[in-house]
Amino acid sequence: MNVTERRSPRYVVVLALTAGLILAGGWLLRPRDIPQSPPPVPSETELQELSQRTQRRSLDSMTAYFAEVAADVRPAIEYIPSMRTSGMVWDQSHVITGALPVPDRASALTVRTASIERGAEVTSSRRLPLSVLEVSLGPPARVPRRAASMPKTGDWVIAVWQTDDAPAFAAANFRQVVSASCGIAPANELTAGIQLNRAMTGGGVFNMDGELLAVILPCGDRIAAIEPSSVDEMLRRITTIEERLLARYGLLFSSFSEDERRYFSDTDGLLLREVWMGTRGDAAGFRAGDVVVALNAHAVAGIDDLRPLTTPSGAAFELTVRRGSKTQTVMLEPGAATPGAPSENDARVGVVIDPATPTFRIDSVLPDSRAARAGVKAGDVLRRINHVEPRTRAQADRAVRSATSTPILLEVERDQRRLAIVIPESAAQ
Q: Could you give the maximum distance between any two Cα atoms of the chain, in Å?
């Protein structure tokens, strides 16, 4: 007999429970995403340290870059040990530096190229901010490349100069080029965020390609970066006969202006316009306002006739000068060689003489007066009028008053030099 198998209800329940447990366990054991902890927030101190490390790495990199540029231009800058200053190589036989004393220091100067020192002859000027050293440089001296144009505002530039021990440099951003005046020469001056000082004199300012932008030179009572084109013009002036005579003897000659022609009448020769005090010319007895008419008995018609004075010679020179109505000979040895109210007179001519000083210091010069236009300045010391020394204020006053009808020649002292100034008569206004 077939017996139908019947399953116990308990069995079914157990089976169902087992299946449910398996499913529940599988659900609980399924893979899940592991929660991540939020990253720690750096403190303000840590952020500052990170910024400083980044900046330091950037500055170190820039400093290394500037050092490479300085090393590249180093052969173009020499050192002058006796003057403790730098010099810029201008060509293979000339070095440019700041104005050096004249004239007797030239023989003591040397230029150091690497470890080699070479003697140098110097051409200096009393009115320009530079000197030229003539020296056979040889290697490793190198003439610097000149920049074809100025940088853009904000571009980096670098000043490089020499010290006793090693080259030095300073970098900053370029600003602009401005017009300036250095001595008697106009100049284009480069300005940047570099604090220039006398230790940098004779060095240069370069762009980041190592091209020369400016030479560092004294300019009045400050130090300036002067463009090469302006330096070229100064070099042209420093080699003129006028500047050589001024450097060697302290004498500045020139031709006559129209007002001076009317005063001197006979205008053969050259006017001695300035005599620098303490120089050979001053010691020889020259006076500002002298007219040099002959050199060693040869007539002087122009500045070229005084060229022999600029060449080395062991003999003295005999100059014939006209001083007022007198003619005399001056020997030139060889070698390197207080306020007051303006009177009627003051108002017409423009000179107010300080009565409290026995030297007749000019206290003021009226604006746009004939004296002002002729070049008289407040502070000038009046030495002679028409070659005659005034002994009293009244005498000086009478002599100056005469300029209303005839021109007068003043010899004044200014900045350690004596100058000849002609004040024209009233009709010449």
A: 178
